[in-house]
Amino acid sequence: MSRAARVGVMGGTFDPIHLGHLVAASEVSYRFALDRVMFVPTGRPWQKREVSAAEHRVAMTELAVRDDPRFAVSRVDVDREGPTYTVDTLRDLRAEVGDDVELFFITGADALGAILTWRDPAEVLRLAHLIGVTRPGHELADPGLPEGSVSLVEVPAMAISSTDLRARVASGAPVRYLVPTSVEHYVHEHGLYRAAS
Ligand code: ATP
Ligand code: MG
Q1: Which of 20, 21, 72, 124 has an alpha carbon 20 to 30 Å from 112's alpha carbon atom?
Q2: Cα(1) to centroid of ligand 1, in Å?
Q3: What pLDDT score does 152 carry?
Q4: Per-residue pLDDT for 197 more than 50?
């Protein structure tokens, strides 16, 4: 019998998705021989500012992964009521893919540091192996998780954040080469992140 499928999970606000997200997912996919990476836009993030409408963030994420057969988008978080917790994301995905699939939850160095503040971290670690990836400006370190539950991976450094991209659009600075061209066009067509909106 063939080995169990290995599926990466990349959660994020993706407001907007950028090359930092895509490079991280691609590198982890290669290093861990993943069959697929699911990008999961958050519903209402529990720790965050107001964000763009879920449908805009899903649409941009779909455009960004469209040409890569390793990548797909899941709506589990945007379709669930209430704030998004990673433990719910993983439970819903686990129910979808069944017990034979190994899940790998990918998170940047900034978010990894906060994992112990997440809801039910023990259950998160039971549901998925955690992969922390390097991110410029953040120290990548195991925040004291049980032995063997987390892997730290160096990915090509992309000093890009959605926060900076939103500020760039608001001030008229370029986002070209920082986001996929399709996402750049979407942002402009829909007037996202303009100062007044
Ligand atoms: P924001 O500035 O709005 O928080 P962001 O750029 O941090 O946006 P998120 O949607 O918050 O993007 O991030 C989703 C996931 O991707 C998180 O685990 C985050 O750590 C990781 N990530 C984001 N940008 C990078 C990057 N440039 N390199 C590596 N990982 C990243
Ligand atoms: Mg972030």
Answers
A1: 72
A2: 37
A3: 97
A4: no
Terminal Cα-to-Cα distance of the chain (whole angstroms): 54
Residue 73 has which token pair? Answer: 């988008």
Partners of 133 in the β-ladder: 108, 153
CA distance 59 to 163: 18
For residue 181, what pLDDT is reported? Answer: 98
The two three-digit tokens of residue 93, written as one number: 């995905």
User: In 3-state terms, what secondary structure has residue 193?
Assistant: coil
The Cβ of residue 50 has, within 10 Å, a number of other Cβ atoms equal to 7
Average pLDDT along the chain: 94
pLDDT tens column, 136-147: 999 999 999 999
Report the alpha-carbon angle 40-59-137, nearest 5.
55
How remote is the CA of residue 12 from the centroid of ligand 1, in Å?
A: 7
Q: Which residue of 162, 164, 165 sits with most ligand 1 atoms within 8 Å of its CB, as the best mutation to test the pocket? A: 162
